[in-house]
Amino acid sequence: MTILAGQNLNFNNFMDRVDIKIGFTCNNLCDFCVQGDKRHKLPDKSLAMIKEALDEAKAQQIKGVVFTGGEPTIHPHILEAVAYAKQLGFEIIQLQSNGRMFSYYDFCVKLINAGANEFSPALHAATPALHDELTKSPGAWEQVVQGIKNLRQLNQYILTNTVINALNYKELPALAELFVKLDVNQFQFAYVHIIGSAWKNKDWLIPRKSEVMPFVKKGLDIGIANGKRVMTEAIPYCLMAGYESYIAENNIPKTKVVAESVLEDYDYYRKNEGKVKRAECQTCFYNNVCEGPWKEYPQIYGWEEFQPVKK
User: Fold this and answer.
1) Residues with Cβ < 8 Å from 8, sequence gap 6 or more?
2) Residue 160 CB: number of other CB atoms within 10 A?
3) What are phi and psi of 196, to 5 degrees?
4) Tens-digit pLDDT profile for residues 247-269
5) Do residues 165 and 31 touch, judged by C-beta distance below 8 A?
6) Which alpha helices (DSSP H) does the chain contain, by range?
7) Please, is 131 exposed, middle or buried when counting C-beta atoms within 10 Å of its C-beta (0-12, 13-18, 19+)?
8) Which residues of the chain register pLDDT less than 70?
9) What are the residues facing 237 on neighbouring strands?
């Protein structure tokens, strides 16, 4: 089969997408996993269920799909799901993955030929030991790095995600250097969402945002200087002085989420239920665009770090 060249497509070019969590089975056991123990409670979606979700999204004129989980690449019908999304005419077909299966070059080729055109592997440390510790998967770092190399060789659009936590935040600049070396198109530093396994491990996993910011900004600087698209997620504007244009929430498209239930508008949920602001935020210059931190964060550390910006 012919390998399709990457077209440098990106979800930020489109207004909407559907996030289909095709199953919570995973070959990692990350300390910060937002899905917690769902892998033990909920079955993976059947191919028929995935196709139904795609049909409904297409009927709603949604243009992009991202397959997530759990780990979508180990779903037994992932190739058929991707091919069906292509058949329906979705313009962007992304795989949000822990990246390990991308280490198999032939599997990458099969995904691309089926229709996948955007790949989002996760790498959480600049060193194998720490990434493997965080994911509880010996050898995972080597697999993810090899996977990124395979996708680059296949000329695919690669956007990585890194979950910021207490063990890895000092490595963010070194990780940014690695992303530049691997020539990814985009990388994102996402502050840990304190639910699922992250909530269970909150006593040692959750750093103060003010402590991580020098390392976040240095990592962003490295990407910016090398012409990479860089983003942060779940870091409010008051901590991002000088880097406001790199806040991912400004670029996240309207998203429908199909998981154990259907959430028609994740944007509304994120702003009105997932995140929180205090009364003082109303006096901030960025109040109309800032979403505040995930609501669990001030339950742990309070509000002292977040001060309204005056212009």
Assistant:
1) 157, 185
2) 23
3) 60, -135
4) 999 888 889 999 999 989 988 99
5) yes
6) 47-59, 78-88, 105-114, 128-135, 140-153, 172-182, 197-200, 202-205, 209-225, 266-269, 296-301
7) buried
8) 1-15
9) none
